[in-house]
């Protein structure tokens, strides 16, 4: 028997041996009329799998008997009166029309539903929902028809009753869109949940009082802030107060279903209300923020961007809830939440998503207008990014900043139409009907838990104060705000309803308001289910990574025997696994590299970095376009059998109890995918989390993530992150879109040791750089200008000893045995151009020029650079050489660091520069021009400016 039913049976019945019959009788009653059984039983029965009722399944016995009697009587009467063919033919035609009409209500009933609390929503006529359209009329009202697949209880009913029930279900406070779902089981599930209670279940009086209490809290906070901080921006929830009981129901119900964590993302509207009334933030702290108190020893952020976390008590135990930090970029928090949720699910070994629930709260205009919404929905069922379904709540104010005309704000009927692309059911609900909101919340969460897919609640409401409290909305929405001025609040409407129905009296209603306001005055927590002494086992433990000062170096050496053992495992493939010929050659070469018989290339060193980290207990996650093979075919971490297409990942088969190794090709997105990986990295401090761009310049499609989260998240929100970005970069003559990863943009964002920007040029460097990123307890994002041609460059090699005994060098000194006192010219550079400079010097036989590589451009390693240069006593000129145009690359952002070093060694020397001419485009699209520019800049760097 269903576990929840067993528990409920023992808690509500004393019959011991007889309580199975008791449950069966209750279930029969539920099947006849769900509202006839107590709410707690109805909720448990709702969870049971349901299929189309038949004579032998899910139909009360009495109903079956009555149906057979009806049929037999009808057949006898028909046989005695008229020829069967003529009567049944006409009736059957109408029966078909009735079934067609039923389907029309399921498909289009939402288009006339009363979902707008202001009554201003422009609705077109829907002829499909009229009797005449289906060749029926009022004359058929008393005729009994079969209900077909309807879950209304009886098998047949008069047409008028069918119509009333259809209107009640699909055309009142709930407008349901679900018929676009392809899966029949999912559609039937939704139909059963909506139709059995006509979208209007009868809630217990105590639960209705609870809804009112939550509405009182939502309204009470807004009123208090409005009176105490008049005119201050708060992006209040006024008009959408039903969000607070909705959030309460989601969290409590998810906890009852077994969830241990809930992660929430939302933009501005209602955020302060959620922080106080859902998360339990102390109101006094919020008041101090309004008064300007500084709470972080950093730049901080405005109060309606702040995140928060707490623990709450639910019927299923304690649940940790977290609100993600969010900048003013609206929907960008959504993929960050998904990444954080996936990390928590991986930590809990929860592949189905039963233990961690994502909830994202959207604005209506943003949900329709922001492309990252589509990207986030698109990732929802992919292997690398799925989280078991997300509950989306749209706070539908029916207006953006000042734009409310549908023909201006979108090209679709609803702001939620984009969700249909993943066949998510969408429940439009009138925000002034809090019981309808509670009902669709229950259905939405249960759908997510049942099918592990996304679901949308479109909370149709309004904003009472305009875009923010300093804004005058009637200047652009005069008619809407004339209506709003006379509109009673959601709480007032619901309180009047409960008083009229005798659930509470006026005194109880007033007492709720005064009690809440007194709690605010006293600075007490006002979230009813808050756990004041939380279970810390539900938290992610960041303590080992806090309080560390910046260090350039760290011990990243490994035991040579470990490298040899891992190399053998990486080269092993299962019996009968047929590898493609070129890939087989790569594996054979790596086998020789692992034994020291062949110089090490980039692919081996990088893969060995991952293998050694896994062997030392650190999870590794790599995503991005084509990461399995690598865009430039160097990695081949994922092998494909040429015989049957089967996949084998050696890094996932190093040991039976190794940490999680995740490597997946991403779908063609930068913004959502990078945001997801940021969220993942901020929740998994002990893992190496990598996003690799297909080409480095494609990362500019995710500039919002880079600007608002990766480079500034720690300073704004004290949010640590160890994310690594691999950005292929290098001038190979491939044109403006495949040359530059826009190094200059990252360097412009560098300050206060916020990120690391590295340009490694050898396999040993990438090995130690990746290991340093995890082994060193400091958690800073790492931006890597990774190579393309160097992946197979004959000179870009390392020895096995450099892997096992070396470390990451922020500066690589001159490698040739050149006498220091002979050096007259010093060339500083980063990246691939080093090999061109080296070869030009060797070609000319020049012995008075030293070439020094700066492998870490930020934080700039001044001490290491001084150490690398101080031996050169007779230098006459120093030049910085870069492949990028003069207005791009490292020159403008890093020259002051280099000048500072030179001033300490040679105060009279000026720093020269050799680069491509300043350009609006990153690179030329003509190979001949590329080659000419490259020859010029390399020649000038080695020999000085030519006359």
UniProtKB/TrEMBL annotation:
<dbReference type="InterPro" id="IPR001017">
    <property type="entry name" value="DH_E1"/>
</dbReference>
<keyword id="KW-0560">Oxidoreductase</keyword>
<dbReference type="InterPro" id="IPR029061">
    <property type="entry name" value="THDP-binding"/>
</dbReference>
<dbReference type="Pfam" id="PF02779">
    <property type="entry name" value="Transket_pyr"/>
</dbReference>
<dbReference type="InterPro" id="IPR032106">
    <property type="entry name" value="2-oxogl_dehyd_N"/>
</dbReference>
<dbReference type="InterPro" id="IPR005475">
    <property type="entry name" value="Transketolase-like_Pyr-bd"/>
</dbReference>
<keyword id="KW-0786">Thiamine pyrophosphate</keyword>
<feature type="domain" description="Transketolase-like pyrimidine-binding">
    <location>
        <begin position="600"/>
        <end position="793"/>
    </location>
</feature>
<comment type="subunit">
    <text>Homodimer. Part of the 2-oxoglutarate dehydrogenase (OGDH) complex composed of E1 (2-oxoglutarate dehydrogenase), E2 (dihydrolipoamide succinyltransferase) and E3 (dihydrolipoamide dehydrogenase); the complex contains multiple copies of the three enzymatic components (E1, E2 and E3).</text>
</comment>
<dbReference type="GO" id="GO:0004591">
    <property type="term" value="F:oxoglutarate dehydrogenase (succinyl-transferring) activity"/>
</dbReference>
<protein>
    <recommendedName>
        <fullName>2-oxoglutarate dehydrogenase E1 component</fullName>
        <ecNumber>1.2.4.2</ecNumber>
    </recommendedName>
</protein>
<comment type="similarity">
    <text>Belongs to the alpha-ketoglutarate dehydrogenase family.</text>
</comment>
<dbReference type="InterPro" id="IPR031717">
    <property type="entry name" value="ODO-1/KGD_C"/>
</dbReference>
<dbReference type="GO" id="GO:0006099">
    <property type="term" value="P:tricarboxylic acid cycle"/>
</dbReference>
<dbReference type="GO" id="GO:0045252">
    <property type="term" value="C:oxoglutarate dehydrogenase complex"/>
</dbReference>
<dbReference type="Pfam" id="PF16078">
    <property type="entry name" value="2-oxogl_dehyd_N"/>
</dbReference>
<dbReference type="InterPro" id="IPR042179">
    <property type="entry name" value="KGD_C_sf"/>
</dbReference>
<dbReference type="GO" id="GO:0006096">
    <property type="term" value="P:glycolytic process"/>
</dbReference>
<comment type="function">
    <text>E1 component of the 2-oxoglutarate dehydrogenase (OGDH) complex which catalyzes the decarboxylation of 2-oxoglutarate, the first step in the conversion of 2-oxoglutarate to succinyl-CoA and CO(2).</text>
</comment>
<dbReference type="GO" id="GO:0005829">
    <property type="term" value="C:cytosol"/>
</dbReference>
<dbReference type="GO" id="GO:0030976">
    <property type="term" value="F:thiamine pyrophosphate binding"/>
</dbReference>
<dbReference type="Pfam" id="PF16870">
    <property type="entry name" value="OxoGdeHyase_C"/>
</dbReference>
<dbReference type="InterPro" id="IPR011603">
    <property type="entry name" value="2oxoglutarate_DH_E1"/>
</dbReference>
<dbReference type="Pfam" id="PF00676">
    <property type="entry name" value="E1_dh"/>
</dbReference>
<keyword id="KW-0324">Glycolysis</keyword>
